[in-house]
Amino acid sequence: MQIGNITFKDYPVILAPMEDITDAPFRFFCKRYGADLMYTEFVSSEALVRFAGKSLLKMDFDEGERPIGVQVFGHDIRSMVRATEIASAMNPDLIDINYGCPVKKVVNRGAGAGLLRDVPRMIAMTRAVVDATVLPVTVKTRLGWDEQSKNIETVAEMLQDTGIRALTIHGRTRSQLYSGKADWTLIGKVKNNPRITIPVIGNGDIDSPQTARQMIDTYGVDGIMVGRAAVGNPYLFHRIKHYLKTGENLPELSLEARATLCLEHLERCIALRGERVAVIEMRKLYPAWFRGIPGFKPYRMKLMPLTTVAEVRHTLDEILERCGRSDLSGSGGEYGQGIRTE
């Protein structure tokens, strides 16, 4: 698969842009475990044109994270053009336009998935963004606004005509939000449309190596994008890529490995934001880092009120000791076991 001058061998496994999730500390782990392409958190065009500090910070990345894209969203075409120019000056590898965010406060302003109700404006905005940068432009969107308006097949052709270099489709409508099961049927139809020549990337419910393989084989997509399943589980990228290459299903990480990574994540957040803010923000990620471990809820609740890294480190050590360091590890798999450079 190729996007502009970025070439991917085999099937790329891509990290989805997620607000308050895909910051630099989290991207570090996803890159470590093999994400082929990553995106920043999505950035508001209105905030960028005002040079809001938080939005500018979202676009910071390390050279080791390449290839990386900056995702922008907005409702005003002029602001989107200016935001694209500002984002391009940060020298990412590509610019992505968000036409998929279903959050009410975004949609009500006519941005994100709200543009699915105004396709002419979506197309005009996309063309303006493409014309505003020398970087390749990609788009992420959904099947349509609701069950009665699944218009992605037509919209995909129109978006391609604007000059975008790849299209990511989330297999739900805006009305579904993140509920129900992602429908990949229309993603497959877009990919197999003979008029579509740009790469088509599938997104939605990729939560295991087997699911990734199934979606590639069934629908023929050029790549897959992993979102919520990677939160607290960046090792999933390695497991998917290893499975696609060898057919071998690597085990999940052990409890000890997850605790080690969780603490490292916290420490990287502290380096970026300071201890007080980082410890509080990590509270929302403890359920993800220890997702699926039987009987872990009481321990997770013990982590939530902590306010210092020393307390977190002590509590994680206590949890590991009380749990015998392996009793809650499910299918096992020590930290780093089976990890190879591929």
Alpha-beta classification: alpha/beta
* CATH class identity of the largest domain: Alpha Beta
Q: How much is the average pLDDT?
A: 91
Number of domains: 2
The count of helical stretches stands at 15
Question: What is the total tally of β strands?
Answer: 11
In the CATH hierarchy, what is the superfamily of the largest domain?
Aldolase class I
Strand content: 5-15%
User: If you compute it from the alpha carbons, what radius of gyration comes out, rounded to the nearest whole angstrom?
Assistant: 20 Å
User: Main beta sheet, described?
Assistant: 9 strands, parallel
Helicity range: 40-55%
Run of helices and strands: EEEHEEHHEHEHHEHEHEHEHHHHHH
CATH second-level architecture of the largest domain: Alpha-Beta Barrel
General shape: globular
Q: Which fold name corresponds to the CATH topology of the largest domain?
A: TIM Barrel
Note down, in words, how this protein is organized.
By secondary structure, the protein is an alpha/beta fold. The protein is globular, with a radius of gyration of 20 Å. The strands form 2 sheets. Strands 3, 4, 5, 6, 7, 8, 9, 10 and 11 form a 9-stranded parallel β-sheet that branches. It has a two-stranded antiparallel ribbon with strand order 1-2. Helix content is 42%, strand content 12%. The protein starts with a strand and ends in a 20-residue tail after the last helix.
